[in-house]
Amino acid sequence: MSKARSAPLRTALIHLALIAYTVVALFPVFLTLVNSFKSRNAIFREPMALPTPSSFSLVGYETVLQQGDFIGYFQNSLIVTVASIALVLLFGAMAAFALSEYRFRGNTLLGLYLALGIMIPIRLGTVAILQGMVAAGLVNTLTSLILVYTAQGLPLAIFILSEFMRTVSDDLKNAGRIDGLSEYSIFFRLVLPLVRPAMATVAVFTMIPIWNDLWFPLILAPGESTKTVTLGAQMFIGQFVTNWNAVLSALSLAILPVMVLYVIFSRQLIRGITSGAVK
Amino acid sequence: MSDTEIADIEAAPIRRSTRWHIAVFLAPAFLVYTAVMILPLIETLRLSLFNMVEGQLAFVGLGNFKVLFSDPRLSADFWNALGNNVIFFIIHMLVQNPVGIAIAAMLSLPGLRFAAFYRSAIFVPTLLSFVIVGFIWKLILSPIWGIAPGLMDLVGLKSFFAPWLGKPDTALITVSLISVWQYVGIPMMLIYAALLNIPDEVLEAAECDGITGWSQFWKIKLPLILPSIGIVSVLTFVGNFNAFDLIYTVQGALAGPNGSTDILGTLLYRTFFGFQNQMGDRSMGATIAAVMFLIILAGVSLYLFVIQRRMRRYQF
Lengths: 279, 316
Hints:
Radius of gyration of chain B: 25 Å
Strand order of the largest sheet of chain B: 1-2
CATH topology of the largest domain in chain B: MetI-like fold
Strand content of chain A: under 5%
Number of strands of chain B: 2
Low-confidence stretches of chain B: 1-11
Distance between the termini of chain A: 27 Å
CATH class of the largest domain in chain B: Mainly Alpha
Largest sheet of chain A: none
Number of helices of chain A: 14
CATH class of the largest domain in chain A: Mainly Alpha
Radius of gyration of chain A: 23 Å
Largest interface: A-B, 100 and 103 residues
CATH topology of the largest domain in chain A: MetI-like fold
CATH superfamily of the largest domain in chain B: MetI-like
Distance between the termini of chain B: 15 Å
Number of domains of chain B: 2
Low-confidence stretches of chain A: 1-5
CATH architecture of the largest domain in chain A: Orthogonal Bundle
Order of helices and strands of chain A: HHHHHHHHHHHHHH
Oligomer: heterodimer
Shape of chain A: globular
Mean pLDDT of chain B: 85
Shape of chain B: globular
Number of strands of chain A: 0
C-alpha cells in the first residue's frame, strides 16, 4: 500500500531534502576531522581537500599529546560521565520503581517534587552550589561534578523510567513474590532487565549534557588535575588560537568518545523513545 | 505489554506494617536531588534578598532587584540580555522546531530507505560539545580561512558574504542559527517518536477518505502530534533561557561584539564571577539567577496551566 502511495518523484525529492540536510549536519564535523590530519599549509591552501600523501601530517596530534595533559582530561571526563550515568541509572531506577510499584502516602506529591528538576535548570542554583562545595571542601574534585550531574540527571531519569516500569507485568512480579523473592531481588533481577531500552534512552540523554558541559567544570573544578576534556579543549583553544593543527586535532579527539558511546546506545535509543514516556 | 486488564483486577501489594524497602529505594535519589539541587536553588533565591552592608551580609528585601532595574549600567545590561534572549528563543521556535518537524515527517514516511542513517547523521551535531561547535563554526565563517566565502563563490553569492559573527547587527542571528544547527536533533527525535506512535488504522482510515500526502500531514498527523510539539517548545524555552556555553565559546564571556550577543546566562556568569575589570558580585549574581528562575517558572506555568489544558489529546 505504501508503495502505491509514494510516487517516485516525491520519494526522490524527499531523499534530496534529507541528503541536503545530512550534508549540512555533517559538513563541519567532516571538515574538522579531515583537516586535523593535514599539514599547516594544506589546511590553509585547500581546506576542503582530503589529506593526500604529500599533505598528510600528524603534527597536530603530536602537539596536543605533548602540550596539554589530554590523557588526563579524558580520564577525568570519562570518570565523571560514567560515574554520573551509573548513579543516575541506579538511583533513578530505584526511585522510579518505588513510585510506580508501591502505593504509599505522598506518592504523587513526591513524584511531582522529583519532576520539578526537569523544568527548572540546576544552573540557577550555581551560586549556592559553589558555596556548599566550598564548605564541604569539594571544590576542584571530580566528586563535586559527579554529585551535580547526578542531581541534574535524576528528574528526567525518574520520569522516563517510572512510565516504563508501569508497563512491566504485575503477574511477573507477583509470581516472583510467591516464589519468595525479596522486593530487592524483584527489582534487580526481574524489573531492571526488562526496562533496558528505557535505560539506554536515559543514558544517552544524561550523557550528552554531562560530557559537553562547560559551566560546572569552569566553576567547580577548573584546576589542572580535574579539568574535563571540554574545558581542557576550551583552554587549549585559548592558548593555541593560531596553531590550527593542534586545535583541530584536539577537537577531533574530543568528538571521538561521545561518538563511540552514541553508537553503542543508539540502537536501543529510538526503541526507548518510541515506546516510552517522552511522547 | 498486554496485561493491563489483568493488572486492573490485581489488588495492591499486600500491606505490611512498615515497608522499609520503599524508603530504601527512594532515599538515595531523594537525598542527592534535595541536597545538590533543591536546597541550593532555595538558598540562591534567599541570597538574592541579601547584600553586603558595611562588610556584613544583611537582609535588604527587594533592594537587589531595585538596584538591578534602576542602576543605569546594570539595568541596561539586563534589558539588553533579556531582549537578546527573546530573539534567541524566537529564532529557535521559527527555525529549529519547524525544521525538526519537517525532517521527522519525512523520516517517518513508511518504506523510506536509509531512514536510520539519516536519523543518526542528523543527530550527530547534538552530540558535539559547544567547544567543538563554537570553534568549528568560527573557522568556517572566518574571512581568513575562507570556507564560507569559497562555498558562496561556488553558487555565485560571494558578494553577500560578510564576517557575520563580528558585526553587531548580525552576530546574534548567526549564533542563534549555529545553536539551531546543533539542536535540531532533539525536536527531530521527539516528533519522530510521536509520529511513529500514530496507529496505522488512523492513517488507513484517512486514506480511505482520500486524505493523503500533504493534506494528510496537515489534517491528521499534525493535530495528533501537537502535545509533543508543546513539550518540544517548553524544552526549547527552558534550554534557551539558561543557555550560556555556545555564546561563551563563540563570542567569549563579554558576548561581543559590543554586547550584541549577551544573553541572561552570560550576564549571570559575568555578574557572579566578574570578568576583566568587573568585580564578581555574589548577591547580584543570585539576583539575576532569581529573575531567570521567575522567567522560566512563568513560561513553564503558562504552558502547563494555559496551553496544555486547552490542547486536545487523543487516546488510541
